[in-house]
Amino acid sequence: MAGQxxxxxxxxxxxxxxxxxxxxxxxGATIGNILExxxxxxxxxxxxxxxxxxxxxxxxxxxxxLSLATFGAGFVTRPIGAILLGSYSDRAGRRPAMxxxxxxxxxxxxxxxxxxxxxxxxxxxxLLVIFARLVQGFALGGEVGPTTAYLLEAAAAERRGLAxxxxxxxxxxxxxxxxxxxxxxxxxxxxxxLNAYGWRVALLLGAATLPFGLWxxxxxxxxxxxxxxxxxxxxxxxxxxxxxxxxxxxxVILASCTIVTYVTGYMTTYALNTLQVSAxxxxxxxxxxxxxxxxxxxxxxxxADRAGRRHVMIWPxxxxxxxxxxxxxxxxxxxxxxALLGGLGALTLIGTIPYSAFYVSMAEGLPKNxxxxxxxxxYAFAIAIFGGTAQPLxxxxxxxxxxxxxxxxxxxxxxxxxxxxxxxxxxxxxLKIQWAVNKQDPP
Length: 443
Prior knowledge:
The chain is mainly alpha-helical. It has 21 helices and no strands. The radius of gyration is 22 Å and the shape is globular.
């Protein structure tokens, strides 16, 4: 009997049709994620202008560093939000946790958008801005884990990779929306107007989505209390060991992903401040990069459902590692539109694919009753340590060395560490594991 099973191609484990992930549920989860990451990321795009409004200084570098440090303050409260809202999602459900985080994020971005400048209310302005960023960080810390768990649990086993890929894809969509808004504003407003209030317009667009987002998320079906779909494994002990290994390796990979993502998100400020290119080209480079990243994230999830998680993680990561320095050298030497748009776009295309496979692999390896909280906590600590410091560190490295290649150095170290961890990740794709089980059956 076992021999006959071994010769048959196994069918992917599936869930009943009424429990499968619907298009409405996907967009309900990811649109809220898009809106939250738009709010959080827009600050990064307008770091120079926000620094001038709330952190005036005689030295432009000091003003920018204070602004970026405040951006980093939002990462301090991420672990707290991850622990509290993530564990709440494991007890009360994914939907209420996602709704609470969305409401907090939108309220904080509204406060930030309408905050009077330093010239108007003095020291109260930067203090209130820091408080708003802390609230945003708390909310976003509790967003990623429940959303990822929701997408995984609501999807059929053979579609988990594609479903979970909407998590990183939604972050790219958010970054694209922010860059698009920045591009439009930079083309339609004078430099003086953009510096004075253009960034407020961008933030208010995110705050305006609060009613729609709350309505959308309140209509989502709950997945926490649905029966856990069994994932085949060679032995329960081996699966337990793999879950513990995923926690440690996941932290390293998330740290690597965070550094690459936030350095890439820094490209608008980098292009304006370091390369001294025009504002439309600076925003355009980020826009093209993030647009390509959307397709790459979804492609990575689709490939992970067909080729397994490990292969889709490892080989594109190798290619991205080899591409990083040549692309940044090209950009820094030519400072042309082709280098910024084409080079950064190609690097993002290859470099984004591995992380969709990783997201689903990590979520699959965690038990359902702790999935939301554990994923959120690991993610938040990686983000807090490496995301909050990425942009200030790169700015400081450029200032210290005078080299426009400083971002490439940091990305190379991060990508190499991520690759090493990916090589040690176990395979969690249900179809791949079932094949392993069948091959080990005695004839």
